[in-house]
Design a protein that fits this description.
By secondary structure, this protein is of the alpha/beta class. The protein is built from nine helices and 15 strands.
């Protein structure tokens, strides 16, 4: 049974006072002028996955202005465990609360029920900007395979913040560091191994695919040195690095120093040196490969969010993308400024026009011509 959202309702979220959609089994196309609220809709869908959503925004930033009353998102979601009623609320900027079937639930539970992938225009420069964006991209792929990746990442980051505070305060007593470094080593090695396994699954999916999008050879690298491969070795690396870290005022070893190195496989050219179009095609290829691997591992295609993905693709590439999405059976939510960008999809998709008039947004289902 494919993952899909049967009903999505937003209240006081971003630009939307109240919106309710009932998607069917087809991909969802949201089109309309810039600023109408299309991306806000798929951002709401992205919150059905653990984390802060595709924009990494705070709950306060998501509230509709000027009222700032708080917001609510609810959905009826088809999952491998059956239909689930999932809701998120934030009261006047407070952190969002998750309920599943009207019962409070941790965000980690979302990772067990829903697999979500996304591709945004801001990611077009992924290969040529800093390592942080590539790590986020890698961790999003990894989380889709391993729900425990979110908890391990949170544990590691919390312990590292405490360690960095000690380093900045120039605390030198080793007893203050040992417990934190033990936590960082235990969670850090889980992060590292999850990432490696995720890259292996992506590589396998690319090798088995018949696609018009280019394959990317991916490697996990470190900005300095090598990442230890065992928990004991990582704990020892933290201990050995303390004096250097004290001088820097921060932790200089560990999985937070990882980077994702990509190569356009057919040409043997680093992704960073490829053309803009090739870089975009590589990202699309990776998202599709991720989705294909999840069909095998999870038993269902993920929900895929593609914001303005068609804008810089020619008609042939658009048609290839839409064919692959439909072949996967994934519920893909796609945005664009005009319905003509989705001509190649025809009646295989469900279309909604998004408009904004005097600060009031509306979403209207439209039958394609």
């Amino acid at each position: 049974m494919p993952l899909r959202i049967h009903r999505l309702t937003l209240s006081h979220f971003r630009s939307h006072l109240h919106v309710s959609l009932e998607p069917d089994t087809r991909p969802v196309v949201l089109y309309g002028p810039n600023g109408a609220g299309k991306t806000n809709l798929i951002e709401a869908v992205s919150l059905f996955s653990p984390g802060r959503g595709m924009r990494r925004a705070s709950a306060q930033d998501m509230t509709r202005r000027p009222e700032a009353l708080g917001w609510k998102i609810s959905g009826l979601v088809e999952t491998p465990e059956g239909l689930q009623g999932i809701a998120f609320t934030s009261d006047q900027g407070a952190p969002r609360q998750v309920k599943i079937n009207d019962k409070p639930a941790p965000q980690s539970r979302l990772g067990e029920l829903v697999r979500l992938l996304w591709l945004l225009p801001s990611m077009d420069r992924l290969w040529i900007e800093g390592a942080e964006g590539r790590r986020r991209f890698l961790d999003r792929m990894t989380l889709s395979f391993f729900p425990n990746h979110a908890e391990a990442s949170l544990t590691y980051e919390k312990a590292m913040r405490e360690r960095n505070r000690l380093l900045k305060d120039q605390v030198r007593d080793p007893m203050w560091y040992k417990a934190l470094e033990a936590q960082m080593a235990a969670s850090g090695i889980v992060i590292h191994h999850n990432r490696q396994r995720a890259l292996d699954r992506i590589a396998q999916a690319q090798d088995q695919a018949s696609t018009q999008f280019p394959a990317a050879q991916l490697d996990l690298t470190q900005t300095e040195g090598e990442m230890p491969d065992t928990e004991d070795d990582l704990r020892a690396a933290f201990e050995e690095s303390r004096f250097r870290d004290l001088a820097a005022g921060r932790t200089l070893v560990g999985p937070h120093r990882a980077d994702l190195y990509g190569v356009f496989a057919a040409k043997g050219v680093p992704a960073a040196d490829s053309s803009t179009g090739e870089q975009k095609a590589l990202l699309i290829s990776l998202v599709l490969s991720n989705a294909r691997a999840l069909v095998e591992d999870f038993g269902a295609p993920p929900i895929v969010l593609l914001d303005e993905v068609a804008a810089h693709l020619d008609a042939q590439r658009r048609a290839a993308l839409y064919d692959e999405i439909c072949a996967l059976g994934a519920q893909a939510w796609m945005t664009g400024t005009g319905a003509e960008l989705f001509t190649e999809l025809g009646p295989r998709a469900q279309y909604f026009e998004v408009t904004d008039t005097a600060g009031q947004t509306s979403v209207t289902q439209v039958n394609p011509a």
